[in-house]
Amino acid sequence: MKNTKNILWALPLFSVLLFTACEKDDPEVPNEGELITTLTYTLTPEGGGTAVVFSFRDLDGDGGDAPTIVSGTLAANTTYSGVLVLLNETETPAGNISDEVAAEAEAHQFFYEFSTFFLSGGFEYADSDVNGNPIGLLTAFETPDSQSGLTLTITLRHQLDKEASGVDLGLIENAGGETDIEVTFDVAVQ
């Protein structure tokens, strides 16, 4: 009976030692987002013409110097094809974050929010992930008649719900997830 008491007393101590010995030595580091210093959105008119480049560059990140934002003027009643490129220019050579977004396309989507009455033709995603859901590295849209005072906000979300209502149409409201980068450009249409 005395041995049974010793075993019963030692059993909880042995269990604690066993479970702590099985813990991982290294804590699991959460998947951190890549540093994005540069966003370039190049719009090329269908049928030829000069490309318009919108760019954002912030080499020192949040809280340092203000980013450099270059906006552009688009031609009225013109269809544009867009190509978006993300870079990490703190590395040499610069890291191409667009390639990483494309490789993890099921977990990423760009959203393009145009100010009211900006588009005359619908905005279209021109790329998709393996499930047929949009990514947004490639786009197309048609501009309206001449206007000024317009804006375009580009947002990259990751770990979003691509099946949520309207997300496949580019509506960010139900997307959820985390924002990797969000930039607003001033736009004129002439």
How would you characterize the overall build of this protein?
By secondary structure, the chain is mainly β. The protein has one domain (28-189). It is built from 2 helices and 11 strands. It has helices at residues 2-21, 97-103, and strands at residues 38-45, 52-57, 68-70, 72-74, 79-88, 95-96, 108-114, 121-125, 138-142, 147-158, 178-189. The strands form 2 sheets. Strands 1, 2, 3, 5, 6, 8 and 9 form a 7-stranded antiparallel β-sheet that branches. The chain has a 4-stranded mixed β-sheet with strand order 4-11-10-7, with no helix packed on it. A hairpin with a 6-residue loop joins strand 1 (38-45) and strand 2 (52-57). 23% of the residues are buried. The model is unreliable at 4-31 (pLDDT under 50).
- The average pLDDT value, as a whole number, equals 85
What shape does the CA trace take?
A: globular
Order of helices and strands: HEEEEEEHEEEEE
User: Helical residue percent?
Assistant: 10-25%
Instruction: Give the beta-strand count.
Output: 11
Category by helix and strand content: mainly beta
Residue runs with pLDDT of under 50 for 5 or more positions: 4-31
Please indicate the percent range of residues in DSSP E strands (runs of 2 or more).
35-45%
Distance between the termini: 95 Å
- Most strands sheet: 7 strands, antiparallel
Number of H/I helices: 2
Write the layout of secondary structure elements.
Elements: H1 2-21, E1 38-45, E2 52-57, E3 68-70, E4 72-74, E5 79-88, E6 95-96, H2 97-103, E7 108-114, E8 121-125, E9 138-142, E10 147-158, E11 178-189
Parallel strand pairs: 4-11
Antiparallel strand pairs: 1-2, 1-5, 2-3, 5-6, 5-9, 7-10, 8-9, 10-11
